[in-house]
Design a protein that fits this description.
By secondary structure, the protein is α/β, with parallel strands linked by helices. The protein is built from twelve helices and 16 strands. Helix 10 links the parallel strand 13 and strand 14.
């Protein structure tokens, strides 16, 4: 195919802690299309989602810093349209891929994205662009987290922020292994939605007797592993009310607060621990063979209908401001995708 000389992208000129001001500062820019380097792939983008990490990055509050201005977007999906001269054209040209990057370079919110070999995953032709675009971050995060519960031989797991997309994949993985779930949400409406999906043990963190209910349920079901995307004092509440020999794995900080409210006596006498999870570290630690096992398993789960990433809206990327306002107004309602075709 004949490639254009320029392409459009959504660019962030500067970080801004004020989310609205950060959104208003975004620009649709025209950029020159470069030839791929020797080991690079040029991806013609189909779709890219907005994630909580993208919002945190815009605010300058994420643990990834880039040279500004920069094109936003950590993940997406598209088709390989050009290969570096050290790569096999026959193996890559026309291949549909999911892509992910947190390197100091332009991201995926663009008509074209330049990817390294370790920033793409081939996906099946049957997988929709919507599911492929959100295939990297949340599904693999859930897979890596769930491995911890399996290694700990937990009979039950606690999922905080259980209305999230990561939680959807954790639910599916837990069903496969017959592991009990305790879902924690902030709103009664989210609890009702999860109940309709068959989740039996649901706790609402805003309830007056939440801590007591958490303690009773966690001890009764022997929930010794918790996955926490909130942090702040909620981590301490989990820690103080879980059984002995428990582990809380923190993989997000949606509260925007430092972890706190941890009982020193629980820390000393319960032999429990708090750890962190970073997807990049998990990928590097496990290696290519384990990553391929995860890829195959997760892709099959999606194609067989066991789990899907919830999509609340798909908007043309030129309407990015409208899409971001929709997402910020209802982050638990599902992904907002930018469409490039």
């Amino acid at each position: 195919m004949t490639l254009p000389k320029t392409y459009k992208a959504i660019e962030l000129p500067a970080y801004n802690q004020n989310t609205l001001r950060a959104l208003l500062s975004l620009k649709l820019v025209e950029k020159s299309l470069q030839e791929p380097g020797p080991l690079e792939l040029l991806i013609k983008m189909e779709a890219a989602p907005c994630n909580p990490s993208d919002i945190a990055f815009m605010q300058g509050g994420y643990n990834v810093q880039k040279t500004l201005p920069t094109v936003l977007g950590f993940e997406g999906a598209g088709t390989v349209v050009a290969c570096g001269n050290e790569l096999d054209d026959a193996a890559w040209m026309g291949k549909r891929v999911s892509c992910f990057t947190q390197k100091d370079k332009d991201g995926t919110w663009a008509e074209y994205f330049m990817a390294g070999l370790h920033e793409v995953i081939p996906v099946a032709a049957e997988m929709t662009a919507e599911q492929a675009s959100a295939f990297f971050i949340n599904p693999f995060t859930a897979f890596g987290l769930f491995e911890i519960a399996l290694q700990r031989e937990s009979e039950a797991i606690i999922i905080n922020a259980a209305g999230s997309r990561v939680a959807e994949f954790l639910f599916a993985l837990a069903r496969q292994k017959n592991i009990e779930i305790i879902a924690i949400v902030r709103k009664a409406q989210t609890a009702a939605t999860l109940k309709e999906k068959g989740i039996r043990e649901i706790l609402v963190s805003s309830d007056a007797n939440f801590a007591a209910k958490l303690k009773e349920t966690a001890h009764r079901l022997k929930a010794t592993t918790a996955f926490d995307a909130i942090a702040g004092e909620m981590t301490g509440t989990l820690f103080n009310n879980m059984p002995p020999d428990s582990e809380i794995v923190v993989y997000g900080g949606l509260s925007g607060q430092a972890i706190g409210a941890i009982s020193p006596l629980a820390l000393i006498f319960k032999n429990s621990m708090i750890s962190g999870f970073n997807l990049n570290d998990w990928i590097l630690y496990n290696g290519q063979e384990d990553f391929e096992i995860a890829r195959t398993s997760l892709q099959n789960m999606i194609l067989q209908g066991e789990v899907r990433t919830s999509i609340q809206s798909v908007v043309p990327f030129t309407n990015f401001a409208e899409g971001l306002r929709t997402y910020l107004g209802n982050m638990s309602g599902g992904k907002v995708l930018f469409q490039f075709d």
